[in-house]
Amino acid sequence: MLSEEGLDCELLCRPESYSNGSELPLGFYVDADCVKCVECRKAEQQVKLLMLEYEALLKLDKRDGQESARLKEVAEELFRVGYIKNPDKARGK
Description:
The chain is mainly α. 52% of the residues lie in helices and 0% in strands.
């Protein structure tokens, strides 16, 4: 039987993926909202900030070289984490 210390973030943040409910009580009601661990919340917050920065950089009518380079960096990172699906957008094409 698993102990609570042995559970990884994937299980704690996605309890619906846990299929053996009879061995380990999850400790919350079925209709309760899932609370993500600190690392997952920080990663999610970083992605949201990147998306806001990407949007702000895209809206600029004229970008200098530094802003264009930053846009490319942000786009590549968003592509890496799966928020941009088109590889051409991540490369700035």
